[in-house]
Amino acid sequence: MAKHNDKGNLLEDIVASFHNDENLRVETRVKIKKREIDVLITTNPLGYDDIKIPIECKNQVNKVGSSQIDSFIGKLHGIGLATQNAIFVSVNGYTSGAKESAKKAGIKLLTVQGLTKDRLAKSIYKAIQSVIYILPIYQGYKVISSIENASNSEHLIFYDKEPLADYKKQPVI
Prior knowledge:
By secondary structure, the protein is α/β, with parallel strands linked by helices. Helix content is 30%, strand content 19%. A 5-stranded mixed sheet has the order 1-2-3-4-5, with helices on both faces. The protein starts with a helix and ends with a helix.
């Protein structure tokens, strides 16, 4: 059975990977004034001041309640981040009180689905942690002529066994 922190970290890593973009700085488990922001997205549009988007993630059995939303609001006020840019992510939804609190503060609520019953998906976690690149490596080529008595002045034409109709219309130089 996975630890509580492993499940929380998994959701944070998944949420961070959704926002991976060259124009964004995405950080997980960021400490600001001794308070932790699960995911912090920072962008600098057109050279203006940084815009920070804090994201709180909850990977728990129950729906997120209003007390958790209120706690997130308090955390944001304490570290000086705007609630209007904030996002709260849950795997099991929100109570009506939580929805009301978030709406008043301008916090966007999102729900992530697709985790296993124990709210963990090791295959997803492993996929996020490793990237495999399969690239062909070009090392050279060799042309073998099956034309007997070919002279150096002959031109060889390469094409598929069944060339497209457009190629048949093209003049050969």
